[in-house]
Write a structure and sequence with these properties.
There is one protein chain. About 45% of the residues lie in helices and about 20% in strands. Helix 5 crosses helix 9. The two termini are about 35 Å apart. It is globular. It has about 450 residues and is α/β, with parallel strands linked by helices. The strands form 4 sheets. A 7-stranded mixed β-sheet has the order 10-11-9-12-13-14-15. The chain has a 4-stranded parallel β-sheet with strand order 2-1-3-4. The protein has 4 domains: about 80 residues, Rossmann fold (3-Layer(aba) Sandwich), CATH 3.40.50; about 100 residues, 3-Layer(aba) Sandwich (Rossmann fold), CATH 3.40.50.12500; about 140 residues, Alpha-Beta Plaits, CATH 3.30.70.270; about 80 residues, Winged helix-like DNA-binding domain superfamily/Winged helix DNA-binding domain (Arc Repressor Mutant, subunit A, Orthogonal Bundle), CATH 1.10.10.10.
């Protein structure tokens, strides 16, 4: 088994040495190669044309992971070190030692719910906090500069007493500009767990078909109309407890969690472990627990397939179908086309729909003709690929580029397509989005 670790040249005592310790002590059987970057935007170039050499790739940070994801098509297992509460605790304790007012700090990378949980564990209620946190997505090529500007702006306005970052490049820039900061680095246990999980995924994919299981969770939290709404505290605590339940369930299925936004999570595990915890899909404990504790609609989509990427795609398809039911439940989608619906408390009959029915549904929701939907589905089958640019779609259907753009916009608006990368022509060429369509469920 061969793994690649994509990590920064700086902070080598934190990343490189800790990864080395884990591989030498716990996984000497894994052949590991380290790919170093000075800036996270170099990550795609390190993997370009080399993904096939590795069984799995682990990114040291989410910024390099998401930027690579926007530039390259994933051809092997990709993981990144998750954001963990222990790093926040360490950073807060260090801030206290430095004499900072820890109720007035600026953060990046971490979700607000994780910060609340850390403060709660240290005895700080939310109504006493005046923390600032950066929320924009790391796919922007100027992400590090935007994060640095955010922290410096908070300091210049007197909003914070110091800054906490998990981004190595930002930490280096803060050092250069004499910005008071603490680097919230990952622990060696986090690295150990992610390496072990990557190894488990590689073994699963080499073991046969339908080994990956991906759960996409959507809890329909209410939109916050005002920061001073009377229910704000209760709403924030709900978010905190929902996250806690999701992470607890991830431990049961020995999975890893990606937080997509308030009430939105993706869990990666294996089909074998999911079958064990669901009693061969009879009940889904996470669904039951969330419905029992919270007054929100809980929608879960589960995808099972031989590759992590395909299982992820199927989980999004299943989640869309679950949300369309407008009531709490889970839809499980398998690579052979079969599906199951699990209501709170137990399994319901098979909910598989024919291709014709699915295309009719897509046509109605997108206001495109059923013939257009069928032609797109036929094109993906003919090309053996469901990803293309607007230009490729136009050429495949024999229509104008403008019409292809309009079709993709309507599909994307209704969840039947999503941007998965970019294609660039020449140095001055405007990048074209690579879209993936989800017409067959």
């Amino acid at each position: 088994m061969r793994m690649a670790i994509v990590l920064p040249k700086t902070q080598s005592d934190i990343y490189f040495q800790r990864f080395q310790t884990v591989f030498q002590r716990d996984h000497p059987e894994i052949d590991v190669q380290y790919l170093f970057y000075s800036d996270y935007k170099e990550a795609p170039g390190l993997l370009q044309d080399h993904q096939h050499e590795y069984d799995a790739v682990i990114f040291a940070g989410s910024a390099s992971f998401y930027y690579a994801q926007s530039c390259l098509r994933q051809e092997t297992i990709w993981l990144y070190l998750p954001r963990e509460g222990s790093a926040i605790y360490r950073a807060l304790l260090l801030a206290l030692k430095r004499g900072w007012d820890i109720t007035r700090l600026s953060f990046d990378t971490y979700e607000y719910s994780m910060l609340l949980e850390a403060y709660h564990e240290l005895g700080y209620p939310e109504d006493k906090l005046r923390i600032q946190y950066y929320t924009h997505h790391p796919r922007s090529p100027d992400y590090n500069k935007l994060v640095l500007d955010f922290h410096r702006d908070c300091l210049s306005k007197g909003l914070v007493s110091g800054c906490i970052t998990r981004l190595t490049t930002v930490a280096n820039m803060m050092e250069r500009y004499h910005v008071p900061y603490i680097f919230a680095h990952p622990t060696i246990d986090t690295i150990r767990e992610q390496v072990a999980f990557g190894q488990k995924l590689v073994v699963a994919t080499q073991g046969g078909l339908d080994q990956f299981a991906v759960l996409a969770v959507d809890v329909s939290l209410p939109v916050e109309s005002s920061a001073f709404a009377p229910s704000e505290y209760s709403f924030s605590m709900d978010r905190l407890h929902i996250a806690r339940q999701v992470y607890r369930y991830a431990e049961l299925i020995r999975g890893t969690v990606l937080e997509q936004g308030p009430g939105e999570y993706v869990l990666f595990s294996t089909k074998e472990l999911l079958e064990s915890q669901t009693g061969s899909y009879q009940r889904l404990a996470l669904l039951d627990q969330l419905v029992k504790e919270f007054p929100y609609c809980v929608s879960i989509g589960v995808g099972c397939s031989k590759t992590a990427a395909e299982a992820r795609r199927l989980s999004l398809v299943a989640l869309r179908r679950s949300i369309q039911r407008r009531k709490s439940g889970a839809v499980l989608q398998f690579s052979d086309g079969t599906s199951l619906y699990i209501r709170p408390g137990g399994t319901a009959p098979d909910v598989k729909a024919t291709a014709s029915e699915q295309w009719q549904e897509a046509a109605q929701r997108t206001h495109l003709s059923a013939n257009t939907i069928a032609r797109i589905a036929e094109l993906t089958c003919r090309r053996q690929d469901d990803r293309f640019t607007a230009r490729q779609l136009a050429e495949g259907l024999g229509i104008s580029r403008r019409s292809a753009d309009r079709i993709l916009e309507r599909l994307e608006a209704q969840g039947y397509a999503a941007a998965v990368g970019q294609e660039v022509f020449g140095e001055r060429g405007r990048p074209a989005r690579i879209m993936q369509v989800f017409l067959l469920k």
